[in-house]
Amino acid sequence: MNDPVTTIDSRFSDPDAEPTSWSATREVLENAQITWLTTVRADGRPHVTPLVAVWLDGALHFTTGPEEQKAVNLAANPNVVLTTGRDTWDAGLDVMVEGPARRVTDPELLGRLAAAWRTKWDGQWVYEVGDGVFRNDIGGPALVFAVDPTKVLAFGKGTFSHTRHVPRQGR
Fold first, then answer.
1. Is residue 170's pLDDT more than 70?
2. Where is this region: Disordered (predicted)?
3. In this structure, what CATH number is given to the domain that contains residue 89?
């Protein structure tokens, strides 16, 4: 998502609050070390798990093993929420990304994503690309998913603000 429509919700914001800019929101997504993924089980119960994610090309990307609960849930319902931020009340910015998760299998994009993971975590997350998945020496294949946001919420703390970023129509 680039150049979204940005609005502030005055119902949940301090009277003097300004909307959080898209660049500040995107910076939180780009730099987050942990992101929490929420999926929905087939019986409707939520499933929440922490993971590492990469922001690239206007989408938030994450991985999962094909047999993990995340993958099972996504096969039935691709709609997810990814959340990151700080565990403080009076400082920082919390960000929520909502949208459908789609599999990434393109070798060129997977290569760029593998490089992004390696760079973001100083070589601690090293993936090779093969057969439309990530591979490493820790376990089996890792499916890669992208979430193109349908909505991003940014919650400013200290001066409380509730900002909504949505894609522009026609893009």
1. no
2. 1-22
3. 2.30.110.10
